[in-house]
Amino acid sequence: MNHRALPALLLAFLAPAARAQPAAGDPLAAAQAALDRGQAEEALAQVEPLLKRDSKNARALLVRSTARCMEGDVKRCRADLDRALALDPTLRQGWLNRSALAIADKKYDDALAALAEAEKLDPQAPDNALNQGAVQLLAGRLEPATAQFRRYLERNLGASDAWYLVASNYAFSGYAALAVQHLDRAVALDERQRSRARADANFADLAGNPAFQRLLSTDSWQAPAGSTTATRVYDIRWEGSATPLLVAVLNALQVSGTPMGSRVEVATDWALLWADVRIKLVKASETQTRLELTGAPGKFPGPAWEKRTQELFSTVELELLKLERRKG
Question: Does 75 map to a domain?
Answer without folding.
Answer: yes
